[in-house]
Amino acid sequence: MKRRNRRAYGLIVVLIVLALVSGSIIVLTQVSGMMVFRTRQMYLEARTRDLQASARAWAELNARSQAEGTEPRTIALDTKPLAAPGAELRVTISRPEGKPVGAAVQSACGTGRRVLRRRGAFSLEDGRK
Questions:
Q1: Closest by alpha carbon to 106, among 62, 48, 65, 66?
Q2: Of 66, 56, 76, 70, the residue nearest 124 (C-alpha)
Q3: Is 128 domain-assigned?
Q4: Which helix (H) or strand (E) holds 34?
Q5: Is beta strand 73-76 parallel, antiparallel or unpaired with respect to 102-111?
Q6: Strand partners of residue 103
Q7: pLDDT value at position 125?
Q8: Could you tell me which residues are beta bridge partners of residue 115?
């Protein structure tokens, strides 16, 4: 009788350990999936900030030569040198009458099905190149 109880006790211990291990695997799977999602989101946000900064720098250097008349002009910038796959970058330059040259930036960056789009607008001061 004692031998039978020892086997049952060993089986119960094995089943409890198996349940604990499988529970920890499920928790680790969910946490790692959340980390992958957050990492991709941070990558897209960083890439979009880089695109916005590049567009602003380009606009500060080239806006005055590109702004002709009072009609807004949209220019699509090449993103291949930035090594940003799936990225789009458009700068709209406008020169309203009596106001400094302004620029609006539209950027999009994506990986797979996720696409992050951002818009920004700023005016260029006269004394700045």
A1: 48
A2: 56
A3: no
A4: helix 2-66
A5: unpaired
A6: 93, 122
A7: 67
A8: 110
Residue 129 lies in a domain: no
Structural domains of the chain, count: 1
> What residues does 43 pair with on adjacent strands?
none
Show the tokens assigned to 117. 């789009």
Is residue 104 a part of any domain in this protein?
yes
Put simply, whether the predicted model's pTM sits higher than 0.90 gets the answer no
- Residue 33 confidence (pLDDT) above 50: yes
Q: Supply the range of the domain harboring residue 65.
A: 2-123
Q: What are phi and psi of 127, to 5 degrees?
A: -85, 0
Handedness of CA 16, 17, 18, 21 (dihedral sign): positive
Which residue is listed with tokens 């799977």?
Answer: 29
Residue 17: phi and psi, rounded to 5, are -65, -40
Task: Name the CA dihedral angle for 44, 60, 70, 72, rounded to a multiple of 10 degrees.
Answer: -20
6 is a domain residue? yes
Contact status, residue 50 vs residue 82, Cβ threshold 8 Å? yes
Amino acid at 3: R
Burial 86-119 (b: 16+ CB within 10 A, else e): ebbbebbbbbeeeeebbbbbbbbbbeeeeebeee
109 touches 47 (CB < 8 A): yes
